[in-house]
User: What shape does this take?
Amino acid sequence: MIKHYYWPTPNGHKTAIMLEEVELESELYPINILAGDQFHPDFIAISPNHRIPTIIDLDGPQEAPYTVFESGAILLYLAEKTGKLIPSDIAGRNETVQWLMFQMANVGPMFGQNGYFQGYCPEDVPVAKKRYQDISNKLYGVMDQRLSAVEYLAGQDYSIADIATYPWILPKQREMHRIDISEYPNVARWCKAIGKRPAVQRGLNLMSDSMKVGNPTKETYNNLFGPSQLLK
Ligand SMILES: N[C@@H](CCC(=O)N[C@@H](CS)C(=O)NCC(=O)O)C(=O)O
Assistant: This one.
């Protein structure tokens, strides 16, 4: 049984999709990051950087509960636990880890900054908007090039690298990041194929009505981007 600490955001979607794909039994623990649930000491005890997603595997290694935070680490852990969605040969495994790291180190943080400056920053900062939009387009270009040669990010098979990346490419994200997908036909093809998977659709549906930031209130803004973030 996996305890799943979750809120329906791009990083949260990754583990929701993964749990559906590998068909592990899970129990949902919503952490409302708009309301500040992530700062509760009980949550920080399992997720020191107060971020969702986080899991506790009640049937962990050494037959004891085992906690994992950071979405990339969770995907790897669940893939290795189940033997699914990551190849077992060294080259195939490393190809998958490489594109997973590409998402964790580039797509997530840079698209996140893009979204902040396009959608939430209380000041208009054109230089930051341009910088992060340019970097986002550049990363789309890298993925498009890769997907012109292979079916999925890690090669010919669907893997945790795709699960990590797909939630950041959804139409809602592209709109916020000011991305024109028609400039990236291979990413568009890949996106369409992944969106057809029933497990992906079920994962994306999990609490799909709850992440409506819209125009954040002062409290919501503070919890997501303001002084609360500094834990002081
Ligand atoms: N690198 C982390 C990022 C996770 C992350 O930023 N989660 C956001 C939601 S998408 C969150 O929990 N925000 C609450 C907060 O920052 O306090 C991961 O991939 O797990």
